[in-house]
Amino acid sequence: MKIIPDVPIVYKNKFPKNFVNDVNGWAFSKKELQDNLGKLLTLDIDFGAYCNLNCPHCFRKENKVDFGNKKLMGYNDIINIIKQGKEMGLKSVKFLGAGEPFEDKRFLEFLRFLKKLDIIPLIFTKGHVIGDDNLVKKWYSDYGISTGEELVEELKKVNASILLGFNSFDLNLRF
Fold first, then answer.
1. Can you give the three-state secondary structure of the chain, one letter per residue?
2. Which residue has the higher pLDDT, 31 or 59?
3. I need a labelling partner for 78 at 20 to 30 A (CA). Which of 72, 121, 122, 149 fits?
């Protein structure tokens, strides 16, 4: 089976000095856990409910999520929860779920808010917005950001960790 595109093997049995096989903000050392016993170190949240991808394996169908009789939290509600979490020791936030976080015009504002509180964002994404300058302009032009490279620079500034999801490099693979 050929992998398309060819992905180079960068480290074959040789890793850079001080290499750590971890995602910044994901795990905590034994000492950190002991020093913060009983504190809230990480929080999983959804940010927005919109995603235009319609991936075949996703629980979303036709860009809809069944929230039942529950109401989505507003931006200010999420801010208040984060502030309360910070008081309880919050160090990182994982963006999972119901929508693609990069398809929300307030997402960068929220990431900047987390940076001010020294909270590390871990963002699960398909990366399609980051890789498409037209989508970057659509969602982030109000911040003066118009390319994926500029968005990546901003993500570095807010200390974001990106967890990129994809199904296959094989373009002919169908689900």
1. CCCCCCCCCCCCCCCCCCCCCCCCCCCCCHHHHHHCCCCCCEEEECCCCCCCCCCCCCCCECCECCCCCCCCCCHHHHHHHHHHHHHCCCCEEEECCCCCCCCCCCHHHHHHHHHHCCCEEEEEECCCCCCCHHHHHHHHHHHCCCCHHHHHHHHHHCCCEEEECCCCCCCCCCC
2. 31
3. 149
Rounded Cα gap, residues 46 and 114, in angstroms: 15
Which pLDDT score, from 0 to 100, does residue 100 have? 87
CA angle 91-94-99, nearest 5°?
150
Please tell me the distance from the alpha carbon of residue 151 to that of residue 143, in angstroms, as a whole number: 10
Look at the pTM and tell me if it is higher than 0.85: no
